[in-house]
Amino acid sequence: MNLRTRIILIAAVVVVGGGVLGVGALMLKADQDAAVAQYGEAVVKICKSGMDTNLTGAVPADAKIVFIDGNTSTISGVYQPKLSAGKAATGKADVTHVGCVNTIEETYNVVEYGTTGKYKCRQFSRNLEVAFYEVKTGKQISYNLIKGSIPPTCPGKTDKSLTKYGNPPEAAEVFQVVGLN
User: Coil, strand, or helix at residue 162?
Assistant: First the structure.
């Protein structure tokens, strides 16, 4: 392969890779805009206000809730669709409470292989912070840290470094812990 062909191939990889990243960023922006359009900017921004980890209040039984992913400022595609119709807010007019969810990766274990520890298997659990806020006041009323699943085990030996992730908690477990069942 001559130099010109190599340069063209490298340029093509950069353009395609940049295009994929650009499309991902555009999709995230569209999801963020959709959350703001449906629930309002103030509701989406509540999740950027920081979480008090010492609150143990309860969500009112008549609450109309939207779950916002605090990491992306989008409607949670994991937890919002699983809410019952009686609990799920449909828009700005009926939302009373915001459930802010943040996925937190926590090192579960690191296994080193060989005498020099050249290769490692890193295991991470994906835990979930859930804080509820009153929309009217912007006041946080509760906080829960819910542990995710244990990550898959590392092999007895390997010739490369590995990373293993557990899953975040399922919606049913989250709803039980925060009292939405």
Answer: strand
Q: What number of CA atoms fall less than 13 Å from residue 109's CA on the CB side?
A: 11
Residue 98, beta-bridge partner list: 66, 133
Selection from 136, 130, 151 nearest residue 56 by Cα:
130
Asked if residue 11 has pLDDT above 60, the reply is no
pTM of the model: 0.80
N-term to C-term CA, the chain = 63
Q: Using H for helix, E for strand and C for coil, what is the string for 31-62?
A: HHHHHHHHHCHHHHHHHHCCCCCCCECCCCCC
Dihedral angle sign, alpha carbons of residues 24, 25, 27, 28 = positive
Measured in whole angstroms, the distance separating CA 166 from the mean position of its chain's CA atoms is: 13
Distance CA 147, CA 93 (A): 33
Half-sphere exposure at residue 69, Cβ-oriented, CA atoms within 13 angstroms: 18
What is the pLDDT at residue 16? 45
Q: Tokens standing for 158?
A: 């390997």
Would you say how long the chain is, in residues?
181
Sign of the C-alpha dihedral computed for residues 18, 20, 21 and 25 taken in this order: positive
Handedness of CA 83, 129, 26, 15 (dihedral sign): negative
